[in-house]
Amino acid sequence: MTPTTTDRHRRRFPVTPGVIGAIGRQTLRQCLRRKVLLVLVLFVAVVLVGQRLIPTHDPVKHLATLIVLALWAMSFFGIIVAVFLSATALPEDRTEGTITTVMTKPVGRLNYLLGRILGFAMTSGIILLVMGVVGWGVIRSVGRWAARQTGRDDLLVAKRGIDPTEVMLREGTLPEKRLAPDAEAAVLRGSAEQVLVFHFHRGLGRLSQDGQTFEMTPYVSTGAKLPNVPGEVVVRNPLTAEERRFDRTLDSGRTLTISFPRSLIDPKAGVEVTVRRLQPGAYVRVSKGEFQLMCPSVSFEYAYLKSLVLIYFSFLLVVVVSVTASTFLSAWVAVLLAFVAYFFSVFHQMLRDRMQGLTGEAVGWLGTEAFRHVHRHGAAVEDVGDPWYVTTVNRVWYGVLWVLTHVFPDFDRFKAVSFLTGSRDVPVGVVATAALVLLAYGTCYLILGHVIFWRKELVP
Amino acid sequence: METETREKPSVSVGFDAAIRTVGLTRVFEGWFGRNRVVALDHLDLEVRRGEVFGLLGPNGSGKTTTLKLLLGLIFPTSGTAEVLGREPGDVQTNQRIGFLPEESYLYQFLNADETLDFYGRLFRIPRAERKRRIDDLIRMVGLEHARRRRVSGYSKGMSRRIGLAQALINDPELLLLDEPTSGLDPIGTREIKDLVLQLKARGKTVLMCSHLLADVEDVCDRIAILKTGQLQVEGVVDELLTVQDITQIRLRRLSGEALEHLKTILAERKTEVLEVSHPRSTLEELFLRIVGAAPANDTHDD
Predict the structure, then answer these.
(1) What is the average pLDDT value for chain A, to the nearest integer?
(2) Hey, are the CB atoms on B74 and A106 less than 8 Å from each other?
(3) What CATH number has the domain spanning A161-296?
(4) Which of A129, A184, A191, A230 could disulfide-pair with A360, CB 3.0 to 4.6 Å?
(5) Which residues of chain B are within 8 Å of residue A116 when distances are taken between CB atoms?
(6) Three-class DSSP labels, A3-54
(7) Upper half-sphere CA count for residue B197 (Cβ side, 13 Å)
């Protein structure tokens, strides 16, 4: 029989929506008949009991704690269910032999994987939807109580905060992005021009009462042993080059308040804020923590919905990771691996910091280490290089960390609790970034799963 | 006699082969080549379109391994196989075949209707057509009374029946049956055999693995016997079973006098009479006659 064009197309792109839909539907039915919806009872119990146990002397804190609890419980129960269902289904199909019946139908192995993922995605979606509605009801109810107690009607609103995608942090005059340990020491010791520039777009900061000035309060860190570093802050319009300078004493943990005319902010280019230390041997780090964006508030429900979307993204990623793991592992090992991948996000930032330390990019904690290293040898001492074996170990360790931080996705990107408890909107950029992470990691894991599965022998 | 052995492979280049294997070999081995087992050793086989072919052999002879290779569930160590002109496991091939595994591997949380509906969806059979086929198949395998009951509550015989129904949901051109009658009572066995003959009459090809020789003898046109993964014999059933050097005459109720006369004639012709007796019915025929005549109780919940 001569293969038709459709046949060839199907072999090259073996994705059949009807088949995927059928397997997805069957998977949903399988999950529901395994009584996974009982997890909703647990969720309701945790939220209601937890809500009772939260101290009520401060209604605002009570509400914030409830939001944390509700979102945490949604993530926790949802992830547990997603991992257990999706990591065990394929191994069970293999051990019980049902996969032999399915795979002798015109299914195709990629369709099988996609169908399974679709089914688990639908199951997780239903569970999250119900939990979300219940959680919203409880939060709204407690929100009304807190409003009555405090006389404030703005407790459940979401103000737009800083969108990380709209803030471009760049290092001003640092000679190189990646520095060897000795060069890092040289920079910290030698240059008085270490500059960190924040490049802000839109209206950041607090608008004064008269509407003419902005107030910014960047958080400044100078290292534990160097308090009160003399420094200056330069606020500059990037287009007109109009600027204002402010002499400030920089100290760790102390916010730095700068007021400047509104005219320094260009509607499109934003404003550049440069914090510069003036004392050799010191360093300065500015974080973007304390800014408020002067935008109108949006409804709490809108932000809540976006945080649910983020949680759902994390479920989807966990499902793809678990299904991939289950293509080559037994059920329980796949469950374990999926949980490791999820809980690995706890260590993600720590490992990334460590990587920066190894390459000399670090500021903050690792910068402090470098700083101490320099000062042990005196402020004007030459560079002290590491011996070759230390460099080799560092390179190997860097490679290991790179693999770990790239193989496992950072699930912290899918968390929006801090936005909601801070009465801030969840920025669309955060959701978009999470969607991209999901897409990139999901695709990679799916390809990996398919490569393993498409030539796997399917025997009970 | 159409008997062939490994030394005389029977693979032809005809265009009417539904299944063709050439030197199909499968070796199972553990890590570092330990526990090496040759499950199938250079199997050359051809199943023609429209015939019922029986693959016989004792346990561990390689029958199920052959089926798994033909279905693309496992892959050959060497050699090739073709099913309906394509390589095993091809999605387009699977569209045209039906498979009943040795155990009816079915989702236990589905009932009979849902099971057949699921497999029908995998073939993308339109809804109305799917519903009609499901009704027909459930009626055919005699599970109308249990169509809403979950498969987990089925007896082994009922599981085989629903397993057979799922294998027929797409009205396949080629049916692969692995021990189709195992777990069935004689009535169920008879029904399966009748069904195979019906399918043959409709031009379908059936490959049947079994170690129940009577089942194979009743329905198969040709058979092959495997032993320790090697093809021992292949040929037409009637020719293989015919004993050429013995002649049998069947007569209706011969009197004693006539029998003695016949013996005298045969003695004059120097022909040795080996046995003179009345033929016996088979136990299966007796069972079917008695149970089939009994009042029809629910025989399906065995």
Answers:
(1) 74
(2) no
(3) 2.60.120
(4) A184
(5) none
(6) CCHHHHHHHHCCCCHHHHHHHHHHHHHHHHHCCCCHHHHHHHHHHHHHHHHC
(7) 11
A vs B: CB pairs below 8 A:
89
C-alpha distances in angstroms, A143 versus A72, A150, A207, A239, B229? Answer: 18, 10, 28, 45, 74
What is the three-class DSSP state of B117?
Answer: helix
Q: What pLDDT band is residue B241 in, cutting at 50, 70 and 90? A: confident
Is some CB atom of chain A closer than 8 A to the CB atom of B91?
A: yes
HSE on the CB side for A361, CA within 13 Å?
A: 11
Of B73, B99, B170, the CB nearest to A458: B73
Most confident of A16-30, A192-206, B26-40: A16-30
Cβ contacts (< 8 Å) between A16 and chain B: which residues? 124
Task: Say if the Cβ atoms of B94 and A106 lie within 8 Å.
Answer: yes
Domain boundaries, chain A: 5-156+304-331+414-454, 161-296
Q: What is the pLDDT of residue A333?
A: 93
Which of A27, A30, A93, A104 should we substitute to test contact with B (largest number of B Cβ atoms within 10 Å)? A104
What mean pLDDT is reported for chain B? 84
How much is the average pLDDT of A232-242? 78
Query: Scanning the structure block, which residue is given the tokens 């978009």?
Result: A432
- Mean pLDDT throughout B88-107? 90
Highest mean pLDDT among A87-91, A183-187, B216-220: A87-91
Evaluate if residue B256 carries a pLDDT over 80: yes
Q: Do B122 and A23 touch (CB under 8 A)?
A: yes
Rounded to two decimals, the pTM is 0.74
Query: Which residues in chain B touch residue A33, judged by CB atoms under 8 angstroms apart?
Result: 109
